[in-house]
Design goal:
Blueprint (H helix, E strand, L loop, with lengths): L3 H12 L18 H9 L8 E5 L1 H8 L9 E16 L8 H10 L5 E4 L5 H13 L4 E4 L3 H9 L5 E5 L4 H5 L4 E5 L24 E9 L4 H15 L2 H9 L4 E4 L1 H21 L4
Parallel strand pairs: 3-4, 3-5
Antiparallel strand pairs: 1-7, 2-5, 2-6, 2-7, 2-8
Helix pairs in contact: 1-8, 3-10
C-alpha cells in the first residue's frame, strides 16, 4: 500500500534521478503490507522494480506466520521517514506524564484502556514495548486503522491512544489531546515540549520507518543512484516544507545504515514475539 508520504516523495526523487527518469507508482494494498512486500521480493532484480518498506509492520508478518519473504529477501536502498511512536491522552486527563500511567496501571492492572491501529500493528508493538519496560499491563483495544483508534480517544472511549507523531502532533498543537512521550532517541523538532520515554525513565524506541527496498540481487549501481536521489530529495527545501505541512518527520539513512536498521527491527520483533506474542 502506498501512503500519502510516499506519493509526495516520488516527484522529488525523480527530480534528482537522471534526466527522463519516471517512477510509475503501483499501489498493492492488502494483508497489512504483505501483498506489496511479496511483490517486491518476487520481482525481477534488474533495478526497475523497487518499493516502499513500512517498518515494523512488514517485518512483523514473517514472525506471525509463514510468508513469501523474510528480512533477507530485499536489497536495502535508503530510509526516508521515521515517524516516532507517541502515547497520547485527552487534555483533561489525570495522566500528565508516563509515570502517572505506570502508577495508575499498578493500581488497576489490565484496566487502563489504550487504543491502537490494530492487533499486530506497529502501534500495538509500541504498547507491548512500554508494558514490558515498565512492568505493567494495559487493556489494549484494537481498532481497524489509525483514524478509528484516534476517534476512540477523542470520543472518550479509551484513556490512551498509541500512535505515531504524524497522526497526533496536530491534535496536540490544537489542544485536542496531550502527548505524554515520544519513543525517539531525542525530542522531536515538531514537538520540542514533549519529553522522550528515555527522559522519563524507559529507554525504549519505537515508531514507523519508511524507506525504499528492491528485490535481493538488485544491481548496486541502481541502489547507489536511487539512494543518492533520496538523500537529495530529503534535503530539498520544498519537500521539507511539504513534509512539515502534513506532519511527516523526514529522516534519511543511507544504504548501510538502513540495512542495519532492517536487521535491528527484525531482531527486536523476534524477541518481542518470543516473549510476548501479539497474536
Amino acid at each position: 500500500g502506498t501512503d500519502v508520504g510516499a506519493r509526495m516523495a516520488v516527484p522529488f526523487m525523480e527530480k534528482y534521478m537522471p534526466e527522463g527518469t519516471k517512477f510509475v507508482v503501483v499501489n498493492k494494498p492488502g494483508a497489512g503490507g504483505e501483498v506489496g512486500a511479496t511483490a517486491i521480493a518476487a520481482a525481477n532484480p534488474d533495478g526497475y522494480t523497487i518499493g516502499f518498506m513500512n517498518l515494523p509492520n512488514i517485518m512483523m508478518k514473517p514472525h506471525e506466520r509463514k510468508t513469501h519473504y523474510t528480512v533477507d529477501s530485499f536489497e536495502p536502498i535508503a530510509n526516508m521517514v521515521f515517524d516516532v511512536a507517541t502515547l497520547a491522552t485527552l487534555p483533561n486527563s489525570k495522566y500528565k506524564t508516563l509515570q502517572d500511567v505506570v502508577d495508575e496501571a499498578k493500581k488497576r492492572p489490565g484496566e487502563i484502556t489504550v487504543s491502537s491501529a490494530g492487533t499486530g500493528s506497529n502501534t500495538h508493538l509500541d504498547v507491548i514495548a512500554f508494558q514490558n519496560a515498565a512492568g505493567i499491563k494495559l487493556n489494549h483495544v484494537a481498532f481497524d486503522g489509525g483514524a478509528q483508534s484516534r476517534n476512540a480517544l477523542l470520543g472518550g472511549h479509551t484513556e490512551l491512544f498509541a500512535t505515531a507523531l504524524g497522526d497526533s502532533a496536530r491534535f496536540h498543537d490544537a489542544g485536542e489531546m496531550r502527548i505524554l512521550g515520544v519513543m525517539g532517541p531525542s525530542r522531536s523538532e515538531l514537538l520540542p515540549d514533549v519529553p522522550t520515554y528515555k527522559e522519563q525513565g524507559w529507554d525504549i524506541r519505537g515508531g514507523s520507518a519508511r524507506g525504499l527496498v528492491g528485490p535481493k540481487g538488485m544491481p548496486m549501481e541502481a541502489v547507489k543512484m536511487i539512494a543518492a536521489a533520496v538523500e537529495k530529495a530529503n534535503a530539498d527545501p520544498e519537500m521539507i516544507q511539504k513534509a512539515k505541512d502534513i506532519g511527516l518527520p523526514l529522516s534519511f539513512a543511507g544504504t548501510a545504515e538502513y540495512a542495519q536498521m532492517l536487521q535491528d527491527y527484525n531482531s527486536n520483533i523476534a524477541k518481542i514475539w518470543a516473549n510476548t506474542p501479539w497474536k
